[in-house]
Amino acid sequence: MLKKCFLLLCLFPLLLQAQQNTEYPNDYLSPAFHAGRRAAVREMMPKHSVALFFASQVRNRNNDVDFVYAQNKNFYYLTGLEEPNSLLLIFKEPVTILDKTGTEFLFVQPRNPAREMWTGKILGVDGVKETCKIENVFTHDKFNYATIDMSKVDSVMTTFYTEGILQKYYGRGGVDPLSRMAQVVDSAMTLQKKPNASRTITNIIRGLRAVKQPEEIAILEKVVAMSVQGHNEVMKATKPNMTEYQAQAIMEYMFKKNGSEFVGYPSINGSGENTCILHYESNQRLMKDGDLLLSDCAAEYHGYSADVTRTIPVNGKFSPEQKIIYELVLMAQDSAFLQCKSGNASNEPHKAALRVITEGLKKLGIITSDAEVRNYFPHGTSHGLGLDVHDPNPPKLEPGAVFTVEPGIYIPPGSKCDQKWWNIGVRIEDDILITATGYKNLSAGSPRTVAEIEKMAKQKSIFK
């Protein structure tokens, strides 16, 4: 009992710090932001067109348990609504639907007091109007082909490439039967069957999401900071004879303590030979003295995800071979950073990192030809970051672009090189914002160099 009390006393200042000042968080994207994004979509749509955006559906996990609900990111980007069973229509020119004239129409699930007792409040038409500040809102049972004024519409645009994909995810077998969304999907599919009508709006959405607005950057800065705190605490707490899942627990505790609703993706905490598995997620191994631990973990906050990776020695000290590989990856990352500037092609950071790793592995005798580098560095260096952990990235970097820089080297046991390199897997990943004058490393608060990591490993953790 005394030990438990002592731990609570140690955690008490941290828990106080985590308390928020308002009853619920109040730093969500504003209705004005989402309205601006809808206006941007409409501006880029062709004449006489309508774009359809479906909310995600609830997915069953097993028996009577559903997966935690996650909204379709495009739908969220345009509405801010986090409920299923909804459909947004954006028209290029004003039309009249159900005696309402405009260019935006949102069909949502109706209130259901019996269901709300179990799963929480449903906003309904009035709640959505108030929360999302969208004027033309109806219950989805009122959406059918006959209600849509198609006299001014030549093309129907969706993010679904084929009718089959729409049917798979939103057809009668893919929605909650109680939601009555199947008839909405049937009507949407009827719209798509209009001769020469179906077009994709994916490129428009990808282009907009690739460059972040100031409000999005503010949220990304918060979620990256949450992620950095997790990585730093893992550096302090990790010791031999801990398990990978204990490192994961420390990481995710720090995310949740700071307000993260979810992890951005399944946490990767691989030690020893598991450092060489790019998307290792089971996190069950007992970590040993002399191992590396590769943690690719990040928080999600208000729909936006970070993506941060650090590789640390479990005992707090890199071995000579581990240090050599680590510093080669660090050199590659620093080289990639130099290419993070407006006007450069988005693949320039990867090309720079690849050059450094190729030459470095040759000098170490691990490879003898350029082609062999793919055996040890099999992935790209960068991807966009935002509402999705793999978000769209612009072809050319420009201010507002946010993306990762994450070179890595992975040498699994049995590799065709000296055995002293086996079981060394290193990835260093940071989240980069392009600015008018260069770039900002949003995750710079977590140590990157060998000396900085070894110094932090000596600091006292809040976890005993």
Architecture overview:
35% of the residues lie in helices and 19% in strands. By secondary structure, it is an alpha+beta fold. The protein folds into two domains: 31-208, Creatinase/prolidase N-terminal domain (Creatine Amidinohydrolase, Chain A, domain 1); 210-457, Creatinase/methionine aminopeptidase superfamily (Creatine Amidinohydrolase, Alpha-Beta Complex). A hairpin with a 2-residue loop joins β18 (430-435) and β19 (438-441). The longest helix has 24 residues, at 214-237. Residues 1-18 have low confidence and may be disordered.
Radius of gyration: 25 Å
> Which strand order spans the largest sheet, edge to edge or round the barrel?
6-5-4-1-7-8
CATH top-level class of the largest domain: Alpha Beta
> What is the domain total for the residues?
2
Oligomer: single chain
What share of residues is helical? 25-40%
Distance between the termini: 15 Å
| Shape category | elongated
Biggest sheet, open or closed, and with what strands and sense? 6 strands, mixed
Q: Unreliable stretches, pLDDT < 50, 5 or more residues?
A: 1-18
CATH-level-2 architecture of the largest domain: Alpha-Beta Complex
Q: Number of DSSP helices?
A: 13
By CATH, the topology of the largest domain is: Creatine Amidinohydrolase
Structure characteristics:
3-stranded antiparallel beta sheet, 6-stranded mixed beta sheet, single chain, alpha+beta
